[in-house]
Write a structure and sequence with these properties.
Number of helices: 8
Cofactor: pyridoxal 5'-phosphate
Bound molecules: pyridoxal-5'-phosphate
CATH superfamily of the largest domain: D-amino Acid Aminotransferase, subunit A, domain 2
CATH class of the largest domain: Alpha Beta
Structural class: alpha+beta
Number of strands: 15
Protein name: D-alanine aminotransferase
Family: Belongs to the class-IV pyridoxal-phosphate-dependent aminotransferase family.
Pfam family, one: Aminotran_4
CATH topology of the largest domain: D-amino Acid Aminotransferase, Chain A, domain 2
Strand content: 25-35%
Order of helices and strands: EEHEEHHEEHEHEEEEHEHEEEH
Keywords: Aminotransferase, Pyridoxal phosphate, Transferase
Length: about 280
């Protein structure tokens, strides 16, 4: 497996990370995960744009979009992976440990690829989720390397026999620990607006585009945990989890406990989009 770090393509297992990398001390950086289906990137431009936007938000300067795109293509081409996920991160730079931005350091890019099968089983059957308070910072729209809160939240799910933790701020559902959350009530789709309290998922945006194009009514509007408990359907989305139905929340079944019709419809439309990509 060939990965990229700080200007070099190297054998992944022999990679040497610089000890002064600010990603290491501070999680001082941003990242993306891009899906590869049948050897082709899915929504590459959207991910690249969001990486640039995240870097801009936290004032990581001197990042070139063209360089990012080139590295992404190069890593994909150097590895024979058909269905995979490409991880790319950009740290603020390499410097002795000091909180303030170092003078003259350049962003450090790391990229690696791994095989990632589509999550067919859970998309078919649905998963369990639990809810908890969202105690993250107020810049959740930045895809920051600082994921300690998300890690704690995901582990809470694992320890409670669930697949995902759905977070809420003062009772309003924001998102999952690594996913965006939707509910369906009386045929209308609801999801939290794309503000500073959530990461505006690329899959979230794809789902909203599909809803728009197929006359599925939707509202980007906050809803509460009790609203969600009484919803007909709930699902979450992400690059690797695609559209995953949630059939049980905090031990109570959602709707009649089976995967709902709107979720199925969106899954099938999303699937068509992926398949179309393959035949390009
Ligand atoms: N929300 C959070 C906190 C995430 O970490 C992620 C993805 O990892 C998402 C939402 C989903 O975003 P995307 O669909 O772009 O993968």
């Amino acid at each position: 497996r060939i990965s990229y770090y700080n200007g070099e393509y190297v054998n992944h297992d022999e990679m040497r990370i610089k000890s002064g990398d600010r990603a290491f001390y501070f999680g001082d950086g941003v990242y993306e995960v891009v899906r590869i289906y049948d050897g082709r990137f899915f929504t590459l431009d959207e991910h690249t744009d969001r990486l640039m936007a995240s870097a801009e938000e936290v004032m990581i300067r001197g990042l070139e979009r063209d360089e990012i795109v080139e590295i992404l293509h190069e890593v994909r081409e150097r590895n024979a992976i058909t269905d995979g996920a490409l991880y790319i991160q950009v740290s603020r730079g390499i410097a002795p440990r000091d909180h303030s931005f170092p003078d003259g350091s350049k962003p450090v890019i790391y990229a690696s690829i791994r095989e990632a099968k589509r999550p067919h089983g859970q998309m078919e059957e649905g998963v369990r989720a639990v809810t908890t308070e969202d105690y993250r910072w107020l810049k959740c729209h930045v895809k920051s390397l600082n994921l300690l809160a998300n890690v704690m939240e995901k582990q809470y799910a694992v320890e409670n026999g669930a697949k995902e933790t759905i977070m809420h701020r003062d009772g309003v559902v924001t998102e999952g620990s690594s996913t965006n959350v939707f509910m369906v009530r009386n045929g209308t789709l609801f999801t939290h607006p794309a503000d500073n309290l959530i990461l505006n998922g690329i899959t979230r945006q794809e789902v909203l585009k599909l809803a728009e194009a197929n006359e599925i009514p939707f509202r980007e509007e906050g809803f509460t945990v009790p609203d969600m408990s009484e919803a007909d359907e709930v699902f979450y989305t992400s690059t690797t989890q695609e559209i995953t139905p949630v059939t049980n929340i905090d031990g109570r079944q959602v709707g009649d406990g089976s995967v709902g019709g709107t979720t199925r419809k969106l899954q099938s439309l999303f699937n068509k989009k992926i398949t179309q990509l393959k035949s390009v």
